[in-house]
Amino acid sequence: MIVVSNRIPTGESVSGGLVVALHDTLGCAGGIWIGAHPEPGIGEETLDELGLTPYRRLAFRLTEEEQKNYYLGYANSVLWPLCHRRGDLVEMRPEYGAAYQAVNARVARMVGKIARHDDLIWVHDYHFLPLAKEMRALGLANRIGFFLHVPFPALGDLSVLSQPERFADDLAHYNLIGLQTRSDVARCLEMFRADPRAEFMPDGGIKFLDRITAVRSFPIGIDTAGFAEDAAQEAVNPFGRGDPGRFLIGVDRLDYSKGLPNRFRAFARYLENRPAGSRPCLVQIAPPTRQQVRAYQDITRELEEIAGHVNGTFAELDWTPIRYIHRSVPRVELARLYRKASVGLVTSFADGMNLVAKEYVAAQDPKNPGVLLLSRFAGAAEDMTDALQINPYDVEDVATAISTALDMPLEERQRRHASCLDVVGRTDVTIWSTAFLRALMTCIPSMTFPGFE
Ligand code: ADP
Ligand code: F6P
């Protein structure tokens, strides 16, 4: 198996659902993982072997211009806001699209050099939508699957792109398109239905010009048992001597899609009305990400202002309401923190799945579990119906839910947790990858590619 994604683990503690899930998958299955090297290059067409892991890691180098125009530009200033319903943040520049195409073509050539004819190729995320098309142009007839970790955009939103018709065409070069949720599948099918080049076949496959593809949902998950084990370890208290007592936890990359300002506002609203003597703390771990993009600089500044304001308003000499930490935390430590937290907060305005929701549930002590507050706009909400679902746009709703969660009787906490844990167990990362790869191996091969076996 050859896996291709932009992000690849490079040593330090990793954040981001894709890297965490693929690291767990390849750790069990083995294979080759190709991704971007953290250091820039000069546009070379060679792959560097990174250090030893249970799987091989091969890295291509992006030039500084490509990092700017392909990664920060087209991927994160066009496709990311588009998929997260933030058309207002899309920034379109001709050099972005050109670099995106050029990087996809170059990576295709590098994959082409190492792929054997029977390798399965599994491409991940919006950085590489046209990769299969580029590989097909080189003559690769392998089974190629694609998994989109972020929400599938609504048909209307695709019009934001300069050439919206390329989105469906690029995707149709994959044998299998995997999406997080049933709602994502519905949006993807809506796109194909609206496209005169697509034809629905009786078995559910889609014939697109001379190609056949399939679309299915594969809800991504975590290493549930491993995470629960880490969480239950009686290690040192992660807070040392600064134990906050009762606390709520949020763990997110510092991204505008995560609804962090409203989370802080809702916590402040809760503090205004809290019962006398109650002094819970919100521990927010948010490592900065994509900081060269303006929208990320803005959200970083906005959050600092809100946290400063909330702490200035409510703090006492021996109590800081919001503890706001900007760095990555080792996974074992993270698991321990989740387990100690009375409430886990997920307030995304849009989110492919949200693995943090699943990690929080897996880390709980089933005898005395905390409560998950889960945005109804996170993919995880589709199946985790017994989480306390909230509307992150409605600050009052979130504040009320915080109060409900902190006061929730043990029996109700246990019932909700058992139901959520059942979902987390049924959508484990191994089940996710096995289901995807099995579907890729059994789906209709690319028989309609002229000249290919
Ligand atoms: P996204 O893919 O948008 O970042 P997810 O919630 O699906 O969102 O995945 C985030 C992953 O990154 C989770 O596994 C989470 O534990 C991890 N993560 C996020 N922030 C940190 C952090 N500060 N330290 C360590 N891991 C983090
Ligand atoms: O899981 C969604 C995702 O966009 C991944 O594609 C990506 O690796 C991760 O979030 C973190 O983003 P980045 O790689 O830009 O730091």
Short overview:
This is Trehalose-6-phosphate synthase. The chain has 453 residues and is an alpha/beta fold. It contains 15 helices and 16 strands.
- Share of residues in strands: 5-15%
How many separate helices?
15
First-residue to last-residue Cα separation = 19 Å
Show unreliable segments: 446-453
The tally of strands reads 16
Mean pLDDT: 94
Sheet with the most strands? 10 strands, mixed
How are the strands of the biggest sheet laid out side by side? 3-4-2-1-5-6-7-10-9-8
Percent range for helical residues? Answer: 40-55%
What small-molecule ligands were found? Answer: adenosine-5'-diphosphate, 6-O-phosphono-beta-D-fructofuranose
- Helical/strand content category: alpha/beta
Determine Rg (CA atoms, Å).
22 Å
Per the principal axes of the C-alpha atoms, what is the gross shape? globular
Overview of this protein structure:
Belongs to the glycosyltransferase 20 family. The protein is built from 15 helices and 16 strands. By secondary structure, the protein is of the alpha/beta class. The strands form 2 sheets. It has a 10-stranded mixed sheet with strand order 3-4-2-1-5-6-7-10-9-8, with helices on both faces. Strands 13-12-11-14-15-16 form a 6-stranded parallel sheet, with helices on both faces. The model is unreliable at 446-453 (pLDDT under 50). 6-O-phosphono-beta-D-fructofuranose binds next to α1.
